[in-house]
Amino acid sequence: MLANQRIQWIKSEGRGDLYSFLSAVYKDEISLERVDALWKSENRSSLETLLDCLPAERKEQIQSSLGQLEKYLSHNVPQEMQEATQLELRKEFAFLFLTPHGVYPFESLYRGKKKLLMDKPWEEVRAFFRKIGIAKDKAEMHPEDHIAVELGFMATFAFLLSNAAQEEAPVEEREGLLEIQRTFLQDHLNRWVPDFSRDMEQKSRHEFYQAVAALTREFVQADLWMLEEVEFGNS
């Protein structure tokens, strides 16, 4: 049964939707409208399909974090409170990611020996991207090892793999897309995001970003766990 659930996990567009949402949250100030977008009817259906693939404990952890975020859907925030709520979120984003009192969303700061920007982990991410033929968009202001860029990379390949799996592309193509994501999760995201997200939870003063931190950690760990034993040849 679990083997089939792993296949359904990668087929679901919910993986890409969730990675894309998290990337956007870390990239810039979030709007209530962007939070709403994750819960549009088609996205909600994809999320539910995705989470149904998980064992109960992992599913409950992610659902709990999503439930905290759901409080910030625009229809759950009184009209007279929306402007103030939006201002709170902007202030918290600035505190967390733009001041020395917050956290540093760079892999180099967590895994690099010198704890400096653009340390060896950044070089490794750049080399990984180049190896598979990816160049960072010139409009992207963050370096390759920024969490928004790494999550955005996973979003892109999650959608590519979902499409390939749904269309039953050649096994070699599906395996190649799967291995790219599995390797990136093993060698990068899961080696620093757990520590980063715990720091973020501790330093954040706002429930929204505390929930984002927990969701990020739980989702990338669950994603690697689900991808580790997928075998298309036997699906």
Overall 3D shape: globular
Quote the average pLDDT.
94
Helix residue percentage: over 70%
**For the record, what CATH class applies?**
Mainly Alpha
In N-to-C order, the SSE pattern is HHHHHHHHHHH
Quaternary state of this entry equals single chain
Tally of extended strands? 0
Summarize the main sheet. Answer: none
The name of the CATH topology is TorD-like
Main structural class? mainly alpha
Q: How far apart, in Å, are the first and last alpha carbons? A: 11 Å
Low-confidence runs (pLDDT<50, min 5 residues)? none
Query: What's the Cα radius of gyration?
Result: 18 Å
How much of the residues is beta strand, in percent? Answer: under 5%
CATH superfamily: TorD-like
Question: How is this structure best summarized?
Answer:
With 235 residues, this protein is an all-alpha fold. The protein has helices at 2-11, 14-27, 32-38, 41-51, 56-70, 79-98, 107-111, 120-131, 147-166, 171-203, 207-227. The chain has 11 helices and no strands.
